[in-house]
Design goal:
Blueprint lengths: L6 H26 L5 H12 L4 E3 H8 L3 H13 L3 E6 L2 E9 L1 H21 L6 H22 L4
Antiparallel strand pairs: 1-3, 2-3
Helix pairs in contact: 1-5, 2-5
C-alpha cells in the first residue's frame, strides 16, 4: 500500500526540490561566467585534490555518483577542450586514468573564487550557525538512508 505524502510532507518535499533547482541554476550561471559547466567543476575538484591530479575513471565516477557512460561522454568533451587527459592504466589495460591538465587546473583556479563567493552569498551567509549544523545533520541522515536503502555508496 502506498503511503502518500501528507500536505505538510508534500510542502517540505517541494521546498527541497525548489532549493535544489534554484541552487543548480544559480551555480550554472556562475560557472558559465568562467567558461565551465557545473559538471566540469564537479569533475575538476576531485581531480585537483587527487595525488598528481590523477584518478581512475571508475573511482572518479564513484566519487561524484555518475554512471560510466555519462562520465565517459563528459570526459571526452573536457578532453577536447584540454581540461583533462585520458589514458589507459598501465597496471590494467581496461582501466582508464583521468588526469587534470595545466589548463584544467587554471580553469578551476579561475572559477573557484567566483564559485565560493556565490556559495557564500546564496547559502552560507543566509544560514545561522545553528541552521547550518541542523542542515548538516539532516543531510547526513538522508544520505545515510539513501546509501543504505540502495546498497550503494552514492
Amino acid at each position: 500500500m502506498v503511503r502518500w505524502l501528507s500536505d505538510d510532507e508534500q510542502t517540505t518535499w517541494q521546498a527541497f526540490i525548489r532549493l535544489r533547482q534554484r541552487m543548480d541554476a544559480a551555480l550554472a550561471a556562475g560557472f558559465a561566467q568562467d567558461g565551465l559547466s557545473p559538471a566540469d567543476y564537479e569533475i575538476l575538484v576531485p581531480l585537483s585534490a587527487a595525488p598528481d591530479g590523477c584518478l581512475r575513471a571508475k573511482e572518479l565516477g564513484a566519487e561524484i555518483c555518475w554512471e560510466k557512460s555519462r562520465l565517459s561522454k563528459h570526459l571526452a568533451r573536457m578532453a577536447a577542450r584540454g581540461l583533462v587527459e585520458r589514458r589507459p592504466a598501465q597496471e590494467d589495460a581496461r582501466g582508464i586514468l583521468v588526469e587534470l591538465t595545466a589548463a584544467g587546473r587554471a580553469a578551476l583556479e579561475r572559477a573557484a573564487p567566483n564559485h565560493v563567493d556565490l556559495v557564500r552569498r546564496l547559502f552560507v551567509d543566509v544560514l545561522t550557525p545553528a541552521e547550518a549544523r541542523a542542515l548538516r545533520s539532516l543531510a547526513d541522515k538522508v544520505v545515510a538512508e539513501a546509501e543504505r536503502s540502495t546498497g550503494l555508496n552514492l
